[in-house]
Design goal:
mainly alpha, 20 helices, 9 strands, globular
Length: 508
């Protein structure tokens, strides 16, 4: 959900209520019902514990349930008897219970549910946090998560009141809507004031092109390189300038991140420079203070300045790390290739770039992403291009990716044009004027032409592709300037901002 900037837009609901409800339910479930006093992260390793009770809070995944079965059977083999409890979130499935029965431990464990459907990641964003949804539904045809999506809608409906209108596109959206309506009709009807107006349900396969394009805003690049999970990112030692990694929550409470998250990366360094100067000015205010003013400064401002200093240092380190990686991978040339694919220009040059990208083994994920983008924008690859690119990819990254090509083909992300798909009306008319042998040659010639892309036709109709006159040169110039900027900015921070109050010493 995104907060509209329009003045007449309604205020956002208090999504923190969802977090409080889930926390209270979990505390009641763990402490009062199952007597849990310590929590450990599930790591699929042998459990070393002297406790006579083990309680597992897990997603309903077969792999995790199988690991629990191995733990219970291992305890049985050693003659150790404990009580085992499994709490599935957001719900338990028959497949999991069936596996417990097959492994012979169904009678040794008790099961429960924690109906935690929505996670508030920020003031205006809530998420199901189901990364397995796409693969399970669109690839394997497993519809078990549709009920979960319907339950999430029902939770919003019961907490924030009825929706004014619901719009949807796609088969999965329709099933989620029907599941929600069934739960509303079966549940208790309560009169609540509506806090949510319109609800839009859109299947992911309606637009598969957008997630394949490179992200150029700060938050998107952080996700590409460091991976944001549940609103949290783990910065490596290269970013933190220490010997350990640090986990940071990325939301609107981080003032530095909140101001640069949606900015183009080429504009971020200017903001960071100004932020460093403002922070230095705030530190300099303490010079010439008397005792009373110094006391007020320490109690009211110093803690906030140190927190802002720490966050600024982290985001500067992250930006520097991203800049190095993107410059090394010819990020500008990658953006140019993607833009050409979206516009339908210089396709042969784009294929040559993809081949070079694969042969240089720059990045397996980026190479596969470019292949899928080429396939989607061209409505499939020509047979000779498909075979050539597939062979080069397997030679560069390994034969084990044959299954990856099969899965992508099943999803429609990377497909081969079938013979006859590129035939045109002109070809059929010309074929009537020549003999069979010549017509066969003409058929091959016409088949070599790219089929008209439905994506580009729709993009032109909706004006999705914006012209970037002069923008690429500006971005390239910014990337060249960023390296020198970060060097000077780091020196500035370490020299000036590491100073503390008189009589104190603190590591920057």
């Amino acid at each position: 959900m995104a907060h509209s900037v329009r003045r007449d837009a309604p205020e956002l609901p208090d999504f923190s209520l969802l977090k409080r409800l889930a926390r209270d339910q979990l505390i009641y479930l763990l402490e009062q019902q199952h007597d849990v006093d310590k929590l450990y992260k599930v790591e699929h390793k042998p459990i070393v514990s002297t406790s006579d009770q083990l309680c597992f809070l897990i997603r309903p995944r077969i792999k995790t349930v199988k690991w629990i079965c191995d733990v219970v059977n291992a305890d049985k083999a050693f003659g150790r008897f404990r009580r085992y409890k499994i709490i599935f979130s957001p719900q338990k499935f028959y497949a999991c219970e069936n596996l417990l029965e097959e492994q012979g431990i169904f009678g040794d464990v008790t099961t429960d549910e924690w109906s935690f459907y929505l996670l508030p990641l920020d003031d205006d964003i809530i998420s199901l946090e189901l990364p397995e949804f796409f693969r399970d539904y669109f690839l394997e045809g497993d519809q078990r998560w549709v009920r979960t999506a319907g339950s999430a809608l029902h939770l919003l409906h019961s907490v924030y009141g009825p929706f004014s209108k619901v719009y949807g596109i796609g088969r999965c959206s329709k099933m989620a809507y029907e599941s929600w309506r069934e739960q509303v009709e079966e549940g208790e009807q309560r009169a609540l004031q509506a806090e949510i107006g319109n609800v839009f349900l859109i299947d992911r396969d309606v637009d598969l092109v957008t997630p394949l394009c490179s992200q150029v805003v700060y938050e998107g690049l952080v996700d590409d390189i460091f991976r944001i999970k549940c609103g949290c990112v783990e910065f490596c030692p290269d970013v933190t300038s220490s010997d350990k990694s640090i986990k940071v929550m990325l939301n609107s409470q981080d003032k530095v991140f909140n101001e640069i998250r949606n900015e183009h990366f080429s504009q971020v360094f200017g903001f960071l420079s100004q932020k460093a100067r403002n922070l230095q000015t705030a530190y300099d205010k303490r010079s010439g203070m008397d005792i009373k003013q110094m006391k007020t400064f320490v109690s009211e401002e110093l803690k906030g300045l140190k927190q802002e200093h720490r966050l600024l240092s982290l985001h500067i380190g992250a930006s520097e790390s991203m800049m190095k990686k993107k410059t090394k991978q010819d990020f500008q040339e990658l953006l140019k290739t993607e833009h050409s694919l979206l516009e339908g220009f210089e396709i042969r040059e784009c294929i040559s770039y993809i081949e070079e990208h694969i042969n240089r083994q720059v990045s397996m994920v980026e190479s596969m992403r470019l292949l899928c983008l080429l396939s989607l924008t061209e409505n499939g690859l020509l047979p000779k291009d498909y075979r050539s690119l597939k062979a080069q990819f397997l030679q560069s990254y390994g034969i084990e990716h044959l299954l990856t090509f099969s899965n992508l083909k099943q999803l429609g992300l990377l497909v081969e044009q079938q013979p006859g798909e590129t035939l045109t009306v002109m070809e059929s008319r010309v074929g009537k004027l020549v003999n069979d042998k010549t017509a066969g040659k003409l058929t091959d010639a016409f088949s070599s032409l790219a089929k008209k892309s439905n994506f580009r036709a729709l993009g032109r109709r909706l004006n999705l592709n914006q012209q970037q006159v002069g923008h690429n040169h500006e971005v390239e110039r910014h990337f060249l300037d960023i390296s020198n900027f970060f060097k000077s900015l780091w020196v500035h921070l370490l020299r000036d901002l590491s100073t503390t109050l008189p009589g104190q010493r603190e590591r920057s």
